[in-house]
Amino acid sequence: MSISQLTINQFRNIEAAALTPAGGLNLIYGANGSGKTSVLEAIWFLGLGRSFRSNQAQRVIQYEQEQLTLFCRIGEQDKVGLRRTRQGDVTIKVNGDKPEKVAELAKLLPLQLITPESFALLLDGPKARREYIDWGAFHSDPHFHLIWARSRRLLKQRNQLLRAQADDRQIAIWDQQFAHYSNELTERRRAWVNSLNGVLEGIIGKFLPNAQVRVSFSQGWDSKTPIEQILKQQLQRDKQLGYTVSGPHKADLRLRVNNIPVQDVLSRGQLKLLVCALKIAQGVLLSQQHRKQCIYLVDDLASELDSEKRTLLLQQLEQTGSQVFVTAIDPEQLAMISWQRMFHVEQGRINTTDS
Ligand SMILES: Nc1ncnc2c1ncn2[C@@H]1O[C@H](COP(=O)(O)OP(=O)(O)O)[C@@H](O)[C@H]1O
Ligand SMILES: [Mg+2]
Could you tell me which residue ranges the RecF/RecN/SMC N-terminal domain spans (predicted)? Predict the structure, then answer.
């Protein structure tokens, strides 16, 4: 799965650009503020219908313009187009038709993003790590999305009942269903983490040969007690608080070195490499299980990494056989690898240069 053609119109400082990326390693280089990150952001926007830099999607529309349009061709066949107006109207077309769900886009364009802010995956609370697990399970398990969505809806309904101080018996009826979907969801997440671990170990071994990193799944409640029992035991407290304290919405991926959380032990460079290992493992697993390739977007790859680690990371990305877009200020920073295609960005204009 790779983008063979990309057009960007009125997106950030890019007025109009047309790129023909290579199926392997692509380098996007240029001065600060030239528009490098915006190219990655445009690809992300096509795959997810939102930005990774701003919660407000209209921020990405070029100043003084009414709308942005993006288009890409994936492989030989699939065409994806997206238009978004300042009023927030979004039109998405996949091969000329409107997709039923934005999730269809994510299936066509499985994107992996690595930015200098990606540390957040390890430093912040469990939400980002839960999303990481769910991304993997979503792409590997066709029933996952439905189960995830049902479980989420049931949780919302349960929380509404708790806040409304509903009758215990009424809540108990909902809890049967909530427990059922919680177990389904948890089993699928656990299965995915288990298969991830098989791949991850080797990659972490290359990136952090001296640290024994252990990765484990935490399901969101005491694993020795059935969720039905937990919900019953905690009902009065949940009612007081107005939300459900334990459940699959509290699941997490725990990463430890010598039983200490990684964020307390590893350097920033090491944390960045660990995040890269997690994302590469996710892609490797996807291609092993489903012969589907992720597309890697790596913003400012050089930051925090010495020359040896930059080389290692680029080699590992190349080995995945995936399409990779890397940004850098100066191509000299990343001259240790041969780039299939190079793009120079200058004040929002993009030119292909010889590589
Ligand atoms: N909505 C917008 N319209 C026009 N220009 C914008 C918009 N949002 C940001 N910019 C400008 O786009 C430029 C490119 O930003 P960015 O892609 O982050 O550059 P780089 O990654 O190359 O440093 C910045 O100079 C920024 O001020
Ligand atoms: Mg940038």
Answer: 3-346
In a domain, 228, yes or no: yes
Shortest-distance atom of ligand 1 to CA 38? 17
Q: What is the pLDDT of residue 107?
A: 83
Residues 73 and 206 in one domain: no
Average pLDDT of the chain is 95
22 and 88 co-located in one domain: yes
Residue having the nearest C-alpha atom to atom 5 of ligand 1: 13
- Of 13, 29, 32, 44, the residue with max ligand 1 atoms within 8 A of its CB, to mutate for a pocket test, comes to 13
Q: What confidence score (pLDDT) does residue 292 get?
A: 86
Q: Is 323 in the pocket of ligand 1 (CB under 6 A)?
A: no
Q: Compute the distance between CA of residue 226 and CA of residue 180 in angstroms, rounded to an integer.
A: 11
Q: Would the annotation count 33 as a binding residue?
A: yes
Residue 115 has pLDDT above 90, yes or no: yes
The C-alpha atoms of residue 298 and residue 272 are separated, in whole angstroms, by: 12
Q: Is the CB of 33 under 6 A from ligand 1?
A: yes
- The whole domain housing 183 covers 131-290
pLDDT at 317: 97
CB 231 within 8 A of CB 195: no
Residues 106 and 30 grouped into a single domain:
yes
Whether residues 155 and 283 fall in one domain: yes
Say how many domains are in the chain. 2
By alpha-carbon position, which residue is closest to atom 16 of ligand 1? 35
Examine the domain organization and report whether 26 and 149 are in the same domain.
Answer: no
Q: Tell me how far CA of residue 269 lies from CA of 36, 194, 330, in angstroms.
A: 22, 26, 20
Annotation-wise, does 320 bind a ligand? no
The 10s digit of each residue's pLDDT in 36-76 is 999 999 999 999 988 999 888 889 999 999 999 999 999 98
For ligand 1, atom 20, the nearest C-alpha belongs to 33
Q: Which residues contact 100 (CB under 8 A, 6 or more apart)?
A: none
pLDDT of residue 354 exceeding 90: no
